[in-house]
């Protein structure tokens, strides 16, 4: 993943004084001092330094810092608020005016990602609002989160897209999350709208799957009505509980659609005993994530079969 590229590109845009502050790594000393005061372990201290960097580079809003301390570092609400207050006073406030100006520049650069153009968009505002209101809560939260914008940027930069292409990619991701674009149409739409080669489009879709779609796969199943039965059959038999075989079939159909979408090879079917053993050993693993690339391979340059 090219996350380092995004960090470096934003660093290059910073005003000289803030660049100097980061280059001298003064923030590391301050983060270390705060970590000791709040009894953070080594892993939490590293996470704190990273979150501070994201704010100073204009990638994460400083207004969301308390919430990120809770979700990314695992602090309780009181501890997160207290640590946020000290970070604001000791680290962010001296650079507040610089951060505000830099934030405006970043928002201007990426404004096409975070909003729809009313002249070009396929759906009316009313259609978008209606689709949003019917979503599961976790997808609503994802759409409203600043992390979604950051993930789209990371995928775009990682695959060397232009700003307008990143904006279009953000819209296409939004259409899938809203249930307006079927998941098996996502790949061809990205390829056509962004005018990409099939291989590059497949890489981008795979990255989007890993970063955005896979963590909410269960909710996306509901949004896209993915299951073994047709709509009329579901209405007719809605009161009949599904048998284990039906549930397995539903999972299989979802797997097939996701594999087709993300260009994954089909998994060889095994007999029931072997499959049951593997399910017991791997029940906590995410079957929808693409398999890791083989050693010494470049996942962004592998041929797509």
**Molecular shape:** globular
SSE arrangement, N to C: HHHHHHHHHHHHHHHHHH
Mean pLDDT level: 73
Could you describe the largest sheet, including whether it forms a barrel?
none
Q: Low-confidence stretches at least 5 residues in length (pLDDT < 50)?
A: 110-119, 228-248, 253-280, 282-287, 297-305
Number of domains: 2
How helical, in percent, are the residues?
Answer: 55-70%
Number of helices: 18
- Head-to-tail CA distance between termini: 21 Å
Radius of gyration: 22 Å
Tell me the structural class.
Answer: mainly alpha
Total strand count, please? 0
Beta-strand content bin: under 5%
Explain this structure to me?
This protein is mostly helical. It folds into two domains: 3-109; 111-281, no CATH class. The chain is 66% helix and 0% strand. The chain is built from 18 helices and no strands. Helix 11 (146-158) packs across helix 12. The model is unreliable at 110-119, 228-248, 253-280, 282-287 and 297-305 (pLDDT under 50).
